[in-house]
Amino acid sequence: MKLLVVGGGGREHAIIKKLKENPEVTQIFALPGNGGIAADASCVNIGAKDIEGIVKFAVENQVDYAVVAPDDPLVLGAVDALSEVGIPCFGPNKAAAIIEGSKVFSKNLMKKHGIPTAAYETFTDAEAALEYLESANMPIVVKADGLALGKGVIIAQTREEAKEAVRSMMLEGMFGKSGSQVVIEEFLTGPEVSVLAFTDGEYLVPMVSSMDHKRAFDNDEGLNTGGMGTVAPNPYYTESIAKECMETIFMPTIKAMKAEGRPFKGCLYFGLMLTPNGPKVIEYNCRFGDPETQVVLPLLESDLLTVMQATTNGTLADTEVKFGNKNACCVIMASKGYPQSYEKGFEMTIGEEAVEHAYVAGAKLEAGKLLTNGGRVIGLTAVEDTLEKAIESAYRLVEKVHFDNAFYRHDIGQRAMKAFKEVK
Ligand code: AMP
Ligand code: GLY
Predict the structure, then answer these.
(1) pLDDT tens digits for 126-138?
(2) What average pLDDT does the segment 230-257 reach?
(3) What are the start-end ranges of the E strands in 164-292?
(4) 143 C-alpha vs ligand 1 centroid, how far in Å?
(5) Chain center to CA of 128
(6) Domains of the chain with bracketed CATH
(7) Which of the ligands is closest to the CA of residue 289?
(8) C-alpha span between 177 and 417 (Å, rounded)
(9) Is the pTM of this model over 0.85?
(10) In ligand 2, which atom is closest to the CA atom of 214?
């Protein structure tokens, strides 16, 4: 079977490595992939947002199954375009991807269908938003409606900060069209949990839970990033909370999307906060998380391709989706300066012991050498019987990777270690 994976980060590398475990897979194309992914797939220089280019390539190369991983092509309708030419595809169509593409849509969906989330108001007019902030309680959260590279959420401690966020999004066009509407919502507190789930539109299977580390530096200091490391499972996500989430959040969301005429197929990502008043949805993503995928998929014992195809064919209820009982830890190594400006082009070496555990996010191949080519450069994942061992092993793998100007957090998993002790 010939597969095509759209995207080119650590998440896509993890998906590709897992897909390769199926002996029927003869070739995987990555569009565009990256220099590290090139060790596991044929990288083709077609951008993830070039829908026309992707479809043309898939047809010409007689691809049997495609996986669209990033948010942009999903929201732009890549799955619709591939399906139209008869190529079966993993991921939601454009109508369903709106669950991530528009926060106004997702908040209204939750309100209409009684799914627990932060109280909110939506605004299309900056004056009205500013007026509302005059009497709102602080802190408060201001969110741009559309995709904003994970930067469209401002947690404002003061009224002035909140107003500034509204002005920059709605009047100064900081996120372009994505900020022309905003959601202003209640500030929630509690541990955060990421739950990715496979769904075929009717049936849903949650994957093992995980915990992201979004801030750039140790002790959750520094700017928000795409994610500096993850562990799975997430100790806060107990069996009883999982059951509650299934009943009050996961299945109601699948039913709501179906009722709206937008059945969701693929991977639905639930960003949850376990508040004193129960689990609530912070955000939906219409795709696998990055770097959640780098800890979740290594724990999957079932065949990924079979499960993905079941979401496309509507046969997920009859398909085994099994996760091992182990713990995973992924540490991201980034370029100094990330998530702001950073230099690229440093040679990277990956020790032999680390290759199997490495998910390359930003690198290119030049004259046979791997050069850094992004903010997040590489993730190293270890799977062990305990979280403590997984953390230790992941950091041992980090020592096998070298490039100039590298930085990483030293405390990935420490919050989870503490939580294990609290929860148990
Ligand atoms: P997002 O980009 O939607 O994932 O949001 C980024 C981060 O902002 C989340 O991971 C939360 O830590 C935080 N956040 C978003 N919404 C809220 C909220 N209503 N209350 C508290 N924190 C929030
Ligand atoms: N790690 C968070 C995300 O993928 O959105």
Answers:
(1) 999 999 999 999 9
(2) 98
(3) 182-186, 192-199, 204-206, 211-212, 215-217, 221-224, 229-232, 266-275, 278-285
(4) 9
(5) 32
(6) 2-93 (3.40.50.20), 125-180 (3.30.1490.20), 192-318 (3.30.470.20), 327-423 (3.90.600.10)
(7) 2
(8) 41
(9) yes
(10) 1
